[in-house]
């Protein structure tokens, strides 16, 4: 008997297409599904073709979190207040551990369409007010095992170059039409979700393009069958044990930590304004 059929798998307990505002679809935020899926607290699926005068995302701050941006299509010029600048190409990754506070920006390269996912990860108390660090990875620097590219954590023999702040995996998976795949999460990864950006999956039930699905909290594997060539991101983790204390651009574990992070954001922002880098 096929083991995929014989072994119980996780059920989907929630699904959403999120809310769309212009070129951004917000699939998860700290005030809704982030409470269920922490340390994963925020997920945007963005996509647009630059028009005249469109300058990108604009310089903006974060603290208390790490952001991971994965480019599905197109490239962006990046800049951050750790001093790094460059171009992030198609299938490249930006990892920004904001910690105590950072500002960053991304602008489309040329007039080609861009699309991607941006994920926020809540940092543990030991990391949330540490100095900001950033890492930019070319596609060749992202390891792969089977159909999965490992953005965070480890899958099979593939381990991300990014030091995850807690026990978590974040994968980009591509399956061909009719292809089957089983994901067996590491021990303790009772949080699990996926979001599809192309194609359609059967995962106990259908999950369509643009949809995010949340799995029940358990230690069971997850089985996938692709209907059409399909691409999706998948996250699993040990649950973040802290409250989510939110600011406008920040998520911390306490009011005191949030106040410290916001003070640093204001300090950096004042410098950027003095330098003429903020409107």
TrEMBL record:
Pfam families linked: Pirin (PF02678)
Gene3D superfamilies the record matches: Jelly Rolls
InterPro entries listed in its UniProt record: Pirin (IPR012093), Pirin_N_dom (IPR003829), RmlC-like_jellyroll (IPR014710), RmlC_Cupin_sf (IPR011051)
Limits of the Pirin N-terminal domain: 32-121
Superkingdom classification of source: Bacteria
PANTHER family linked to this entry: PIRIN, PIRIN-RELATED
Family named by the database record: Belongs to the pirin family.
Listed name of the protein: Pirin N-terminal domain-containing protein
Protein species of origin: Pseudomonas frederiksbergensis
């Amino acid at each position: 008997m096929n083991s995929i059929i014989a072994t119980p798998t996780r059920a989907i307990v929630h699904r959403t297409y999120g809310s769309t505002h212009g070129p951004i679809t917000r699939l998860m935020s700290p005030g809704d599904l982030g409470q269920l899926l922490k340390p994963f607290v925020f997920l945007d699926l963005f996509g647009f073709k630059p028009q005249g005068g469109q300058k990108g995302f604009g310089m903006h701050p974060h603290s208390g979190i790490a952001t991971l941006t994965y480019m599905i299509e197109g490239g962006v010029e990046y800049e951050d207040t750790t001093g790094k600048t460059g171009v992030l190409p198609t299938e490249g990754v930006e990892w920004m551990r904001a910690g105590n506070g950072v500002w960053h920006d991304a602008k489309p390269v040329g007039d080609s369409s861009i699309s991607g996912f941006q994920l926020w990860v809540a940092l543990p108390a030991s990391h949330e007010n540490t100095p900001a660090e950033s890492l930019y990875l070319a596609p060749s620097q992202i390891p792969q095992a089977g159909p999965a590219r490992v953005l965070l954590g480890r899958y099979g023999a593939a381990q991300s170059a990014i030091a995850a702040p807690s026990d978590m995996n974040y994968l980009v998976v591509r399956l061909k039409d009719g292809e089957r795949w089983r994901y067996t999460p590491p021990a303790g990864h009772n949080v699990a979700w996926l979001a599809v950006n192309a194609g359609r999956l059967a995962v106990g039930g259908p999950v369509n393009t643009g949809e995010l699905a949340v799995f029940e909290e358990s230690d069971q594997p997850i089985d996938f069958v692709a209907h059409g060539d399909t691409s999706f991101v998948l996250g699993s983790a040990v649950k973040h044990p802290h409250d989510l204390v939110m600011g406008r651009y920040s998520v911390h574990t306490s009011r005191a930590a949030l106040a410290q992070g916001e003070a640093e954001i204001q300090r950096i922002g004042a410098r950027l304004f003095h330098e003429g880098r903020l409107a």
